[in-house]
Amino acid sequence: MELEPESTNQRAIVPTTFIYHSIAAPWTVQRIYEYWRDSTNLESHFGVGFDGSIGQFIGTQTRADANMYANNYAISLESASNLNHTDPWTEAQIETLIAVGVWAHKHPAHKIPLKIATSATSGGFGTHRMFSAWSDGGTACPGNARQEQFLTRVFPGIVSRVNGTTLPPTPSTPVVDLSELMKAAYTDPPKNGTPVSYPSAKVVESALNKEGLLDASLVDGHFGTSTIGAYAAWQRRLGYHGSDADGIPGNTSLTKLGNKYGFRVIP
Per-residue pLDDT tens for 7-58? Predict the structure, then answer.
């Protein structure tokens, strides 16, 4: 479903990165194509419908413009979603995302390493929300449910098929959303008689307890004053000082805590 004049006029690229998006619309592949063709000067290489159908709109060795500063080295894929891109991918979509990821990695003209990207330019697989350079300062695309599926279903599925192995049952690795955790930390709810501020705060508190920084009685899902103090101590252990050790989680410090105690961080 070729887009012109983009296919002819845009520069050639050697892809090193594959980025998954949600389009925040419940569209078919045909409608995604029409949107790129008629309504915007942006475009992705692929579109995937709820039923797993896939369309290609521009060659993967030609630049597509949906990835901001990654346009010159990234393949991009849009997927149908609800209007707020908060729904999970369907099973049919997951199957297609895995299959096209395997194809992209194996393609002889691509240089996409079999890893999750660790920075905006490191190469590998990722989602649009992971690095601000991919989205002009940040985006919630895809939503939390799909970000978790990327970490626990899509990328492990790609690795499994590339290596010719059977994917084990869906991993139960806890996932912590940094933005939700920060909201909980800033809210600092009272300790008694209030709802848990963010359920996965308990995952972080458990890690802080194992680190010897938080009493077990305070592992309760409230990112309150005691947890903030414990997290500040963790930040100081990492070498942070002053306002950088204020007890409010950041991506680097939280990722290091997760790597040590077995949880994943959604940026």
Answer: 899 999 999 999 999 999 999 999 999 999 998 888 999 999 999 999 999 9
pTM higher than 0.70: no
For residue 93, the SS3 value is helix
Instruction: Say how far apart CA 118 and CA 114 lie, in whole Å.
Output: 12
Q: Are residues 128 and 260 in the same domain?
A: no
Indicate whether 133 and 179 sit together in one domain: no
User: What's the gap between Cα 139 and its chain centre?
Assistant: 10
Domain presence at residue 1: no
- Residue 19 domain-assigned (yes or no): yes
* E strand segments, 123-174: 124-127
Please give the residue range of the domain that contains residue 54.
6-163
Q: Report how far apart, in Å, the C-alpha atoms of 14 and of each of 7, 10, 44, 70, 155 are.
A: 15, 13, 15, 12, 21
Give the domain CATH number at 108: 3.40.80.10
Distances (CA, A) of 163 to 76, 124, 134, 158, 159: 23, 16, 29, 9, 6
Which amino acid, 104? A
Task: Pull the structure tokens for residue 139.
Answer: 């985006």
Q: How many domains is the chain partitioned into structurally?
A: 2
